[in-house]
Each structure stands twice: as structure tokens, then as C-alpha cells.
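Bench log, entry 3. Co-assembly request; chain sequences pasted below exactly as received.
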Amino acid sequence: MTNNSRLSITPLSPFNFEFTAASHGWVDLSPNTWDEGQHALQRIERLSTGQVVLLSITGADSIHRPEISVEVHYVGRLLPKERREITAIVSRMFRADEDLSEFYTLCKKRGKRWARLTAGLGRLLRSPSVFEDVVKTICTTNIQWGGTKGIINRLVTTYGEPYPADPAWRAFPTPQAIASVSFKAFADSVRAGYRSEYIHTLAKRVVAGELDLEALANSDLPTPDLKKQLLGIKGVGNYAAATLLMLLSRYDELGVDTVFREFVHETYFDGKHPADKEAQAVYEDWGEWKYLAYWFDIWQHWSGK
DNA sequence: GTCCAGGTCGCGC
DNA sequence: GCGCGACATGGA
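Structure output for the full assembly:
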């Protein structure tokens, strides 16, 4: 028997809920799911009190008053501080407070296809915690997307806390849950290849207090210093660091990987393969907004929009 | 069976 | 600072 409670969040305008939900692959990674019928992003969340809830998140994109609605399903009661925590979680996931007006100004200057982004596109979905974003990012390196989904599924199924009303559904595992099992047991169950060690070590460092990942979310360090900290995480190299910087709202670094190289080569260099430096120069004009410019450049290319 | 994936590490120079 | 092989796992 579950109880329901509804929360409402007013994001900065302009805002586009469905586009943000589907802005990159994170919506497909457990415990996130997309309900096509309800147009809702759903996920199980373990709150810091230990309460495990089901969130069903929907949005209305009125230009004048956009709104994110969160239907919370839970067993027992929901404390006021738990409601506040959920509000903070969903705000972070959808970047409700992120001001992209500078980026939009640049888009308008470019005109044509870029101007379309100013209708609230540009927010890229992220996880409630930096820990979850780091683990997921590590699991996107040197692997195909299907492999990433498999690893994250096994991680959630094996170590996530069950939702009491339906124990088959689980939250993303806490660092504690991962750190408390032996490396061998962890590696055998998650089957993440050599990444298992990176994830297990990361969880142990977080639990030991050696690494305060969540502090990075509010850090005012310059991007190069923040990047250095990210590179200090085993399994995070240049590409993963740039992806994580994006997830920390720093867009001045491009994530150079095979997809980036291939896209820039095909789109901007006729025939010849540019060096990475030359390829990155394509987005130099975008300054602090390079990552978003690249991301929506390739998005428009893929989607034909 | 073989190759390699939205790379990264650790080494040697 | 740069080049290079090794790296687990599973899908193509």
C-alpha cells in the first residue's frame, strides 16, 4: 500500500522538460526509465533518511511559467525534509536553476538552426549525485552503449536498495553498499571488466572520506583545477573528465572521443583527418559554451533537425 | 573465432 | 610531454 504526494518545481524559463529528459543517454540508464505513455521520467530514489521512494517526474513547458511536477510514491510517511531533499534532487537532475542566457545570446547571433536552441534546449540531464554521474561516465569508456546499460543494470539490481512496494525496483547504489562487499564479489556480480576496480576503489575512497565528490557540484574552482581533481579519479581520463565537467555545468572543455573525431571530420573537414587540436578549434568561438555547441551540433546532425 | 567499443593506465623514452 | 601495449567484458 503506497501513499502519494505531489511536489512542484518552477525552473528558470525557457525550459523544455522532455527535451532535457532525453538530452543524452542518461535517461536510458537504470534506475532511470522513461514512461512513454505518461511522458514521465521515473526512478527509485534512496533518500538520506533511508526512505526509498518512487519518483514520477513530468513537466509543462509554458513559456511564461514552466513547471516540473514530481509525483512521489512511498510507503509510510514522507517527512518535510524528505520533500525538500526530493526537490533538490529533481532540480539538480533537470538543472532547474541553470541560467543559459549567455549561451542563447550566442545561438541567436549565429541564427538559423542554432536559434532554435533558445526555446529551452541546452539542459543536459544529470544524476542526483556526482557519485552516480562519475560511475556512469566511467562505464561509458571503451565500451558500446549496450554494454554500459548492462553494467549499470547489474549494479542497480545487485546493490541498489529495493523500493518497499515493489522490491524488483531499486535505487542507484550508495558508495557504502558498494564498498561493503569484497572486490571479488563486486567484480563477479557487476562484470564491468577492468572498470570494476575503478568503481570499487572510488566507492571505498568516498566512504573513507578521502574524496568528497559531492562538494565538486558546488565548487567555484576554475575549470582547469576542477579538471585536475577529476583526473585524479582512477578511470577518469581526458574524455571522461570533459563529460563530467559538462555534468558539473562547465562547458569550456570538449570531450574528445571517437564520436567527436568522426563527427568533426565528416562535417567540417573534407576528406582529411584533422589532429585533435585542429578539430577542437571548430568550436573555439563558443568560449565557455563549447561543449553545448558541439553537443547540439551533433544532435541536430543525428536527428536531422 | 576475431575484432573492438563514445578510453585509460602505466610504462619507457 | 608523447607513443604504445595491456586491459575485462560482451556484442557485432
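The longest helix of chain A spans residues 80-94. The domain at 130-247 of chain A is CATH 1.10.340.30 (Endonuclease III; domain 1).
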